[in-house]
Amino acid sequence: MPLNPFRKKKEMPGGLWILCPSCQETIFKKEVEKRNQVCPQCGHHFGISVRERIAITFDPGSFDEMWGELAPKDPLGFVDKRPYDERLSQAEEKTGLKDAAIVGTARLERRPVAFGGIEFGFIGGSMGAIVGEKIARVTELATERRLPLIVVSSSGGARMMEGAISLMQMAKTCAAVERHHAAKLPFISILADPVTGGVMASFASLGDLVIAEPGALIGFAGPRVIQTTIKQELPAGFQRAEFLLAHGFIDRIVSRDRMRDELATILEYCAGPAPAPEPEPAPEQPADPAKPRAGQGA
Known about the structure:
single chain, alpha/beta, 2-enoyl-CoA Hydratase, Chain A, domain 1, 2 domains, seven-stranded mixed beta sheet, two-stranded antiparallel sheet, 9 helices, 9 strands
């Protein structure tokens, strides 16, 4: 039977497909989500939130957030295209966070660790006074409790709206990391696309082990700025994770689906086997009605 040419076409629901910026393939969105936001065709790593990363990295329900109430101020009354206060309100509404850093303690294969993550969705993951304070605090907590420290960075650098105050966070975070190193405790720095500017020029580059996700942009100034400044053509893949690994700037590239297992293995090398699981309590045995209770005669 021929199709009715006057029948209204059934519309395809929106939001089911996404375009991979790397291989240009159109991919079923659920397939990407199933792979922790990684393209099944080429392995491109899409950005994920810090809370998503916590969920796929640490033991379920083990993350205990700290200092979540800290909120940034506007000491300079900064205005560019929009007032800084307005940018902060919009970023909080978009992400549900008061600033770009989430820090706390968690467990990885039962091993307690300290964790910090920078949310790129909050003003480009830029580091102002609160981000610097929270990264410094969780590092000091790790030192005090003798915990391994894991920090995941995704940031455009220092937050220009806070001027010199934002630049001071570079020194503060580096000093906290140095004290952690002096205590002979491991610090693993994970670089997710992108990590640039003052964050890369401070604590993000100071890990005992620096791990990048595939294809991550890593550097201080961006490649366009460098090319314009030096007026030379840059090598292919310049400032991408693979280029930096080949030149000895980072230690490893680990895909997102292997990151949890890789971190567990590294921590076992650094600090010995993980604690044994706690034994489950024995089930209560039902009382035998034929047996006399304590205090009763036979």
